[in-house]
Structure formats: C-alpha cells, structure tokens
Fold each of these.
Amino acid sequence: MSFSLKLDRIAARAAELRAMLAEGIGGEAYVKASRELSDIEPVVARIDDLRGAERAQADAEAMLDDPEMKELAEAELRALKEQVPALQHELRIALLPKDAADERSAILEIRPAAGGDEAGLFAAELFAMYQKYAGLRGWRFEVLEYGDTELGGLKEGIAEITGRGVFARLKYESGVHRVQRVPATESQGRIHTSTVTVAVLPEAEEVDVQVDEGDLRIDVYRASGAGGQHVNKTESAVRITHLPSGIVVAMQEEKSQHKNRAKAMKILRARLYEQQRASLHAARAADRKSQVGTGDRSERIRTYNFPQGRVSDHRINLTLYKIDRVMQGELDEFVDALIAEDQAAQLAAQE
C-alpha cells in the first residue's frame, strides 16, 4: 500500500469514528471508538496539515506562468518544498509500529559489575542520576530496594519510576555503563575502569503476567544491612523464587513482610513480562539489528570518563563534554538522539 493511500485510509477511519460517536452509540462500543479516535487524532491533524501544504504547493506551481504572480509563487514554493517533506517525515515516524510497553512506567535495576568498591560507588551515582532525571521529567521515583556498602556504594538498587511514557525514554539505558576515573581509594592516582549494569523493565500489571502461587517458593528471613545497620529482629525480609523460570527476587527494604512481598511480586512480574517480550521480539531482532542496540545487559553502551569530562554513547557515536550536568540528570540529549536513531533504523527497514 502506498504511503498516500495509507494516509487517506487513516483520515477516512477518523471520519467513520466521528460519525459513529455522533450517532450516539453507547456502552463498550462508545469507549472503544473514543479511544481509537483519540489515538489517531494527532496523526489526522498532521495529515490535514500535509494535504493543505500539498494543495498550496499545487496552487503556487500553477501561478508560475503568471508574470505578475511568479515572484510571489516562487517564494511560497521555496517554503513549501521544505514543509511538505518535513510533514511527510513526521507522519512516517508517527506511523511506525509502536512498542506496546512504551507508555508504561518502569522498574529500574542497577548493580555493580567489574571493579569492586569503585563499581559500587559509581552504581550509587548512577542511581542518583536517574533519580534526578525522573525529577526533571516530573516522574515519581520510589526506591524499592537499596543495598549499600560500608563505603557508601551500592550493592543493588531497584526503583519504580512512575509516569506516562517512562519506558519509552528509559528503555535505551539498559546495558553496561563504564566509568573511567581515579577512585577515591586509589593512592597512586591511577585511572581505573569499572562497570555497572543497568536494566530497565516495563512495569507489568497482574493481567499481563499470570503467576501461579504453586510456582512460587517463598522464604522469609531476618533483614540485615552494611555494618550491622538496618538489622531487623523479625523475619520481615522476603525471597521469592519463581520455579519455572528460576527468577529470584529478594526484598528487605521495608520493615513489613507484607510490603516486602508486594514489592518483590511487582519486580517478579516485571521480569517475567520482560522475558515474554524478549522471546516475542527475538525473531524481529534477528531480522533487524538496530544500531541503538539490543538493550542487553551484557552490552557496553556508554562510557563516563571523568578526567576528560566526557560521556560517550557507543551505539550512536555521540560524545558530550559535560559529565557534571549528565550526572545531575541531564540525559535528554542522549535519549532524544537514541530515539531518533531507532526511528531512522525502523524507517530504513521499511524501504
């Protein structure tokens, strides 16, 4: 189907839905039609803009033969020859297949990998960076689990980030983040390289993932903390093992066993949902390996070089010399570039 015909069909469908709603349909049919119309109305508005620009272009071309109107027509055509392709590009992006999870909230998981104490310290800084980014975006950031080290580093950090479109913007952050700097524990001033893994999972509802209680092994134990801190004298910590998948989630942040279990189940559902998504998208990923990357946790995606003050994203060859601002949560320049690269790859795959 041609691009123009596809646009005509969307516009026709919008007109059909408006007519249905005007007829006074009720109940579930009304809700369904309203939701569909709401989803496509922004696209229809851009289609109207494009059609209007195309008509103006045809009118201006027709005026070129009129000596009195030629200069005006040429000026109008110069503007329209930029506007029409730009509108077409916007619409092609708007019509790309949507990731069903894009509008969801997300679960963020951060763990130190290679580098010992320094990896733990940088993991804590990354956790704080995402918390600041969430604040800049107006999202809610709730810590689900935060295991700290004696030096103030992070053993494991898990947070729920709530808001519209959180996963769409944060999903590109999954992978290995590398830091290069002189650690506070280094006495001879040598630069060390350490790594931290970041995983961003779309938040799953109970309806997305059916968890059979019979598939769970639930252990309770006493919570403990670094250096004897936060030690709980009651068995409030919870470890849930999902036997079919082998996924294990441990939670001890809350003093209440009930709250720890609820948080652990939230993380378990997110991991199971992501596992389902990964298997569904495996075939598509094999067909089209985006330059943005697979989002695999084993993939090195970004380097933070403190001596040079730079942050480099290896998937899109983008380097920014403003590490202090990036660590303060100013991530949009990377995120916008990653989204644009992913869209470009999808458009190229359609050609």
Amino acid sequence: MPIFFILLLVSYLLGNIYIFVRVIQALGHLSFIIRGIFGTLYWICALLLFASFALRDVKQIPFTLGHIIFQIGSGWLAFTLYMVIFLACADLIKLFNNTFSYGLITALILTTGLLAYGYINYQHPDKQVINIPVNKSLVNKDKLKIIAISDLHLGLGTDEKRLKRNIDSINAENPDIILIAGDLIDSGVTPVISRKMDQELNRLNAPMGIYMVPGNHEYISGIKDCMDFINKTKIQLLKDSLVALPCGLQIIGRDDYSNINRLSTNDWAVLTDPSKPIIIIDHQPYNLSEVQRIGADLQVSGHTHNGQVIPLKFLTEYLFDISYGYEKRENTHFYVSSGLSLWGPPFRIGTNSEMVVFECYFAK
C-alpha cells in the first residue's frame, strides 16, 4: 500500500508538471509577471493535496479552513487526472493533424464539464433494494429490513451537514438492523470530534441494532482513537466479534483485512452455527470462496468505491473478484457497496454513491 501511494504521488507531480508546461507555453505572449502569478497560484492549488494530508488531524486548524484546503487539494487530484488524459489525447491528434491548435482549451472545457457533472452526481446518492431469500428460519420472524452502508469517510471531506442528510435517508427506511461496512472515519478523529458528529450518528434508529466493522481508514486514523469515538455512539463495533440476536440471526463482524492477525475463516466456521442465518460484515471483499464454505448467507463489503471515477473503475474491476454490486454464489449472497460517501475528490464519474436496502426473507 505505501508503494501504491508513492506511485500515485509521483504520477500526480509529473502530471502537474505536464499540465503546467503546456499552459505556460500557451501563455508565452503574456508578461513574465502575469505568468509568475499564474504559476504561483497553480502550484499552491497543486500542493494543497499534500497540505490536506498533513493537516487532517491537527487540532489548531479551524474546521472550515481545513475543509476548504481538503476540497481544493483533493479536487485538484481529479482535475489533474482528466487534464492529463485530455491533453495527451489532444497532443496525439496534433501529431496527425498539425493544424489542430485548440488542445489546451478543449481539455480545460472537457475537464471542467466532467467535474461539474461528477460533483452534481455525488450530491444524489442512489438507493439499491435487494431481495435476499434465505433458506434458514428465524424465531418468530420471517422478514427483516437491513440497511447496509459503507465508506462514509467522515472528516474534512464529509462534514456533519452531509452526514445529517445521509442519516435522514437511512432513518426514513425504518430498518430493523443497520450495518456499517467500515471506513466510517476518513483520516483522523479530530474533525469528527470537533464537529460533534457522534451526536448525528446517535440519531440512527434500528430496533435490532447498529453494527459496524473497522475498515483500513480506521487503522489509518488510529484504531484506538476511532474505537473511543465509536463508543460514544449507539454503534456496536464488531472487531472480530459475533453477535447472536434473540431471533437466531448471527452477525459476524470481521476485523479489517489489513490486520494480518485477524481471525481466519476457519476460526469462524467453529464459532458459528451453520443451521442458523449468518451475515458477515467484512470491509474488504477478499477470499470470497472461503466465506461460502462456512455457510454464510450474506456478506456485505465496501472499500472499492467501485473505482469512484472512470478510469479507476476499471482498475478495481481488475483487482477484486467482485468490485461492485450483488452476486449470488451457491447459497451465499454477496454485496460490495460503492459507498455512501467517498474518499478524496468530491466527484462521482461513471459510478454512484449508494445506500443498500436488503429485504431479507427467511424460511418459515
């Protein structure tokens, strides 16, 4: 993972150099002072990405300032991605058509339009409704409504206002159970605490419980600090834990895949009763065939964001067995959510944020 981020940041810097050189070439007729002002502003915006990482858990920074820095810095990441793609295409066209001289302005217009669409799309999360038939019975129940969400990434990016809208949408469904498949917190608990987001989370309402597993970002944020914060809410954190509800439903909350010492699938095979319904929450959707072997009826995951934007969507499809959506394998139902919010740039391009409603029907 550190190698991935190193490559990402190196690519980001190289991409910004490419864009900067192309813009300076286009501004060659302007004075040195104007180009200098442009260059200073450009690199301030580009380097705010690094500032947003450095300031994510600094208590002395006002939340509003940190939020602005995060939005610009992370947004510039997406701006760089699409400007490089469109500029490279324009340069290829110029190789075959030397008269084409509108590459920069064309790339800028396309990038701006695409980001505007992605931002608007992000403001309107989807609701997916999935029917899950389970060939096992519960005590005195034959149906449950379960809401599953993941990847809220609360912090400088997802603030308390967006969280409030999300919770209103969840409560409007009147779920029996709420499952949170990791990455509730983004990159530090300081902004989450300062904006009193625990008060919003305590508005979640599910009579049979709210259950969450840690994701990789809970470990990035400091797992102990995250656990202390979650303990102030109604959410029950399942970190390699099993909850057996009075109706007979077993909910397994697996620790994140990044913890190499988490319980194995074989351990869970011993700890559960396969004759009763089993739901697994596991942030990262790996080793799915092992889940089938222990008789699980449903596994809910997140983490992938469905790539969040094209072309990263194609990368997650390559990396994960199921990168997004619903699939049934033998008697096990799998759902990998694209997440209710997102990481970094506030854009959804070619993907959607979502809340998942499982209508679970059990044998009588």
Amino acid sequence: MRQKSNGRHAHGSALGRVTIAQVAREAGVSKTSISRYLGGEFDALSERLHEQIRSTIARLGYQPSQMARGLKGGRTRLIGMLVADVLNPYSIAVLRGAEAACQQYGYTLMLCNTGNDEKREQQSLAALHSYSVEGLLFNTQGRNVTPLKELGRMAFPVVLLDRRIEGCDFDLVGLDNVRAAQVATAHLLASGYTDIGLVVQPLYGVSSRQGRQAGFLQMMAQHPDCHGETLEVQIEQPGHVASMLHEFFKRRQQLNAGGKVALLAGNGMVSLHIALALRSMKLQFPDDLGLLCFDELAWSPLVGSGISTIEQPTYEIGFSAIERLLARIDGERAPRREILLEGRLITRGSSLPLLNAAKR
C-alpha cells in the first residue's frame, strides 16, 4: 500500500519547482489524470479524483506551465525583450511602443532587465528560452556576444534595439545616431559655441554611443578653429561626472580663455548627472555654458530656461521593432535590415545663440 508523504515532505517540494510528476505521486494518481484535470476534462474524472487532484495542487502550490500547454498548438505567442538598463528612460519609452504592437498583433511581451551585467544577460536569455518565446528584442550590454551568436546559428528570430552586434546577422531598429549627433553638434556650433564636450558613458562595445561620437567628431572636423572632446563618464561612480566636467572646464579655460563652452550629453541618464553636477558647481546655462542632451525627458523643459534635446522616436522604434520581429517569426528570410529613424531637435534656453543669451 502506498505510504502517504508527511506535510514536511510536501512543503519541501513546494520550495522548488513542483512538477506534474510530483503532483501525480502526491495525489496517488497517474500523470494522465493530472493532465486531464489541467486541461478541464472533468467529465473523465470521478468526483473523488477531481477533489484529490485539486487539493494536492493547492497543497503543493503547483502552477502549470502555460508555455508547455501553448506548445501543444505549436505557438506560445510570447516575445521576450531584454533591455540593458530599465532605469534608462529610453528603455521605458521604447517598451511602450513594443507593448502596443504586441497587443495589436495578439502577442504578450516578457521583459527582462540585465542591468548592463553580462551574467544577468545570460541568465535572462536562458530564462526566456525556458518560456519558449517565439522571438526576442534585444538591447545588449555589448560585451559578451557569444549567446547571441548561438541564436544566430540557430536562425532564432532576433531584432536588435539601438545597438549593433559585430558578427551577428540580425535586423536592427533604432535612431540614426550619426546623423542625430551631427544635427546636435551643428546646432551648438551655429549658436556660437567653440569648445564642445561630448559626455558619454563608456564607448566600448556600445555602437549607439560610438555612432554619436562619430557624428560629433565628423561635424567638429569641419570646424578646425573649434575644439571637440569626448568625456567618458561612470555615472555609477559618485562624483565622477562632476570631476570630469571640472577638469574639462579647467583645461578649456587654460588653453582658450575666449572660447565658449558647451556640453552635449550622450543620453538621458547622463543628462541628469550633468544637471546635478552643474548645480553643485553653481554653473547655469546659457550664462556659463551651453547644454544639449540626447533624449527628451519630462523634466527637460522645466530646468532653468529649458534644456535643448534630441528627441528620439522611441514609440516608433519599439513598434517597428516588433513588426520587424514578427516578419522574421513568420518566416521572412531576406537579408539583414537596419531601420534607422530620424531624431528631432528641440531647442530651448540651454543652447540659445550667444548673442541672444547675452541680452537676457
């Protein structure tokens, strides 16, 4: 006769991932009976078996895999989305467009935040794979690309957000970063600024930042009488942005006393740290320097005389990325595509032409 498990054993099973086999053992029934219960085939079960299975599932805390059940029909209609930093306003804004597209086309979006951490990125990829997602939107940290190359070899549908990956033949949807940086830099130069610092997080492995630097340097090269400099900052390190800015201002003052200084912030997170650093140094724009930032944020019009920005079409990026991914899921085998969307320059007081600023 089968010996019943005690409560301690049942509770111990619940601490891990309870399987259908465990439920069957605890209930003293076959896995087929459990499957019939989960599938709603109650007519095939006696009232006693129905209650026995129900109470065992409740006691063990078993949760059936909706993914596995969906696979019976060949589709889960799940799409995974990995973002490098969910705290970055860009990620949230793109997510809105991606979610809207998923709702329109009957898919569910599963979001994982990697925190720009290589290990978490690999863990998130494994987790999404276990849920049998049909495709993946990916905003990579840009360092270890081996897992993505493996997905490429498997011909698994992937669309990259914002950042290219060398050696991976995936579609990409994002901002035309080179062009946007050219527009931003040209605006600052036309406003009379001669010494411009591009403030970015580390460039290595992040193509979007590298593209912005390329556009910045290309435009500065057309003005040999002006000075352009890239400042790589660690925003996670307290005081680092302020320290880098202080050294930049000091160098420019020593080398070119008459030069008019401006900063171009590489993204929204950098913008915030620049604004805090300038406040701590008691510097104001446009009186003391010019400022233009990538990413239009809710507070951009509210700080001082307003911060000029390059607004990214984030909703359109997210929506277009899902549409591109669905095309791949549906079997499109065309060569790799890049969809690069235009940014929009929004001018405010922080980058006023110097003559106008002097009249204020």
Amino acid sequence: MALDAETFDALIDTVRRFVAERLRPLEAEVEANDALPNDVIAEMKEMGLFGLSIAEEYGGLGLTMLEEAKVAIELGRTTPAFRSSFGTNVGIGSQGLVMAGNDAQKAEWLHRIASGEIITSFALTEPDVGSDSGAVKTRAVWDGQAYRLSGTKRYITNADKADLFTVMARTGDDTGARGVSAFLVPRDLAGVSIGEPEKKMGQKGAKVADVIFDDVIVPVENRLGAEGEGFKIAMRVLDRGRLHISAVCVGVAERLIADCVAYATERKQFGKPIAEHQLIQAMIADSKTEALVAKAMVLETAAAKDAGKDVVMESAAAKYFASEMVGRVADRAVQIYGGAGYIADYGIERLYRDVRLFRIYEGTSQIQQLIIARETIKRGG
C-alpha cells in the first residue's frame, strides 16, 4: 500500500536534507577511512531506511516500488556506500524472505531486518560462478534430519557485518537451475566464516568479502520455498534489485550534472565561464538528456511493477541503460572539470570510480542484454 502523498513528500524531503546536510559533508572521510561512521548508521536506522521495502506489519515503511525508486534517486546524490549500508536489508538480502518466506520465517526475521537490528546479505556469486547463476556449486545435502551446507560465496556485499545470509545452494542432482534451493543461514551457525574484505576500485566504506560454509547444519525450517525453487527466487529478487540500482544511477547522474553546471558556471577560460562554450554545453546537454531518459524508464517500470505487470525485460532494460548512462555522465564530468576532475579534492574522480560497479553487480550489462533480447523474442517484438 502506497503512503499518502503528504507522508511520502515529507519522507522525500527528510531524505533529501539528510543527504545534503549530513551525508555529503562526510564523503571524503568515508573515502579516507573506508568505513561509515557508526552514528550515521544509527541515524539511518532511526529514519527507517533499513525497512523501506518491508511491510508495515513487520515494522517497515512498506514503500511501493515506485516510492522506493524515488527514495533511491535521492540517496544516489551522495556516495553509494551510504545506501549500500542498508541496501541489502531493503533489497537482495531481504526480498527472498519477503517474496518466498512463510509466516513463521517472516515473523522471526523481518522486524529485526526492518529496524536494522540485524543486517542481511545475499550469497549467490561463487569463485567460479558469476553471471551463470544456475551453475552454483555450493551444496546443501539432506542427511535425514537437516541440510549440511558446504561451499564458498564470493564478493558478497555487507558480508563483514551480516547476521543473516540468503544462500543459494544445490540440493538436487540436476546440474542446471532447477537443482538450486534457497536457505536462510544465520551467521552464528557453526561452520560459517567470513573472509577479509576485498580492496576495491571504488565505493569505499561498502565492504564485500567471501563467505565460507563448512558443513553447516541448516534446519529444514530455514529453507525458502520448496527444493529447486532457489533460482526462481533469486531471479525475482534481482528483478526488483535492478530497478533499485537503476534509480540510484539516476540520482548519481543528477548529482554529477548539478556539480558540472555549478563548476562550469564559475570556471573561466578564454575570458568567459566555460559553461558558455558550446562544446561544454554539448556534454551537459547529452548528460541531461540521457539522465532524463533513464529516470523516465525507471519510474515507468516501477509503476508497472506495482500494477502487477511482468517487467522482467523492462527492469533489465532500465538497469542496462541507467548503469551505462551514469558511466558516460561521470566520464563527461571528469572532462568538464579537466585537471580538477582527476584530482581528489572535488570528488568527481571518486564518483567516476564508484559508478563503474553499477555495470557489474545485480547482473552485468551483458546479462541485461541477454535478458532483454530473450524477453523481446518471447513477446514477439
């Protein structure tokens, strides 16, 4: 159920001011320390950001997809690490439970996820398995009383602080997607261990790490859905996650464009502001046009999803276009700033590095192309 207009407008205004007044001044500190301040995390929990997509009956805000996308756009106007701190609780870390969990599972976990008391994570990618999600090698073997889970997951967002993992593991003899099942695996189960966080190109403050499962005993009550439904659950989760990431891409692009306009208006070359030079204007025009197109795609697809329509192709198209778009906008921003864009003082080079990841996670651009083509052919054009 959507929030009433007045309540939602108040939420957007609160998030917008929080981003501008609280988060943006901390960007350089987060980059330098590769960590988010604990007091900021506490403030985000208090605001309800960890429960944006979780129903009100479980303590969340219960936003629709369209409302969530609009909030994500606002959050895109600062370093993506801030959003990533609760992004798994809102998206891939919780949505398998929201979509496929039974009443007992939801009652046990969702209140604590929505409040931020516990952090969730989504464990699908493996050392040898990335885009081919149906080829997972992690196994969950039924021993007559429980599942015994063994395997390694790689590049898992928020693994360093996650309390609960949604894990995709092979339960059947089928080597394809139909042999994959989904499990809720608490971090404190014996045999669960976390690797050292990886050193990354960008998005400092948002950590990824390996998660190792060594003969972990997982009760049958922790399985999401039936055996063999894990891949289907994962794909549904990723469909929603792609729209959220697309919205963040729009927000980052809008931030970069605003920064470019401000800089180009003040910076003078050849006796006038560079904003008056036509080749600079062309880069601003291209960036603005592409950002507007991406925003329209995201909001239209989010509304269609709320209406119950099949948006597998549209979500992939939005993710593909928006993530590629923000990369082009960031590149132009460096060019508009010139030497200053390559120097850390202005933050443009940081965002340039940050946005590169959007074309990879939640499915690479090439995976989105395959989905778009497959769905278009299926629909007959």
